[in-house]
Write a structure and sequence with these properties.
Strand 1 and strand 2 form a beta hairpin. This protein has six helices and two strands. It is mainly alpha-helical. Helix 1 crosses helix 2, helix 2 packs parallel to helix 4 and helix 3 runs antiparallel to helix 4.
């Protein structure tokens, strides 16, 4: 069985997936919540490319903030702030909740991280408290 089919089948049975998110999107969110932002990007990009409806932009928004946190982990202040800003704006269209995802909470927490990063500035990016990186929560 193909990897995507296995992920899809697992997602269909998942208690954490009340709205039946596609398996690739669910796997991307799981990687996001583990702090594996590179892997998150891989799954969500594929989900985004396969989805014909507007919900694809939810996947894209989560992907963008995930890549922002990936840049943060690598000390790239400009990449982190730019993608957190753009991803948060993309996600606002899906507030307060879409497909069981607590989008409003994710946006609020990403904006809080962005504000702190902007306050720290490029030279102090390494001082960011990574325990503040949010998780995608379910409603």
């Amino acid at each position: 069985m193909a990897v995507a089919a296995v992920v899809e089948a697992a997602a269909a049975d998942s208690v954490e997936n009340p709205e039946r998110l596609p398996g690739l999107a669910l796997r991307g969110i799981e990687e996001f919540n583990r702090g594996e932002f590179y892997e998150c990007h891989e799954y969500l990009e594929e989900a985004w490319m396969q989805e014909p409806g507007r919900v694809r932009f939810l996947y894209q928004g989560i992907l963008q903030v995930g890549v922002g946190f990936y840049h943060l982990q690598n000390g790239n202040w400009r990449g982190a702030t730019g993608l957190l800003r753009g991803g948060s704006m993309r996600l606002k269209e899906f507030e307060p909740e879409t497909l069981g995802v607590d989008v409003a909470k994710l946006v609020r927490e990403c904006e809080s991280c962005l504000k702190e990063l902007e306050s720290l500035g490029r030279a102090r990016v390494g001082e960011f408290d990574t325990s503040k990186i949010p998780k995608v929560a379910w409603i």
